[in-house]
Known about the structure:
By secondary structure, the protein is mostly helical. The protein folds into two domains: about 1-20 and about 145-225, no CATH class; about 35-140, no CATH class. About 40% of the residues lie in helices and about 0% in strands. It is built from nine helices and two strands. It has a two-stranded parallel ribbon.
Amino acid sequence: MMKIYSLILFSGAILxxxxxxxxxxPMENTNTGNLxxxxxxxxxxxxxxxxxxxxxxxxxxxxxxxxxSAQDGVDLTSYQSIMNTANVVPFNLGASxxxxxxxxxDPDDIMPQPPNSPLTNQEIAxxxxxxxxxxxxxFCASCDTSVYTFSSAISQIVENNCVGCHGSTNxxxxxxxxxxNEIEQYANSGALFGAINxxxxxxxxxxxxEKLSECExxxxxxxxxxxxxxx
Length: 231
């Protein structure tokens, strides 16, 4: 029993050393509301489900604008930091630096920077539509707590919220969460759930970012309670 308890404490301590992001500046943009709805509107672009995953996977990564890095003072680890440091102007693509850099043709200015792959046309169109619709911190209730297998829910939650810091390239604290075996290790130690559930003794994860929705936290808990299977 003592060995198991020690492993949980050790794993938790390792996860706590994850991303050390730069402090977020006070919010200046007034368009900060968390806007939710009962169902997803197919004509709307939602920050938390459509836009933020693109930014997390491609921009808010270690060495760029996340994972303890904020090149040129740009921190893309949360809605507030994106609005504060990436100069996103609601309803105005031409005045939004975020849109300008992802559509640049100059290899010295485009983001993500080479040799990283540029965003796809679809990803660019998604970000553009979000800005044109007002660049709000909006979300919709697309999460389903009855779905909690690794393939249908958990892997996507981790990819959207953790891989920016804990990817396979230079992962924070040496912790990579890109494969089932890696994720399962921290799930079974108790460190993964303790961090995302903001429990005492754990640093809240994602670090310096929005807490996962209660639905997502429940999905992870159910997956772990059912054996953290590769299902």
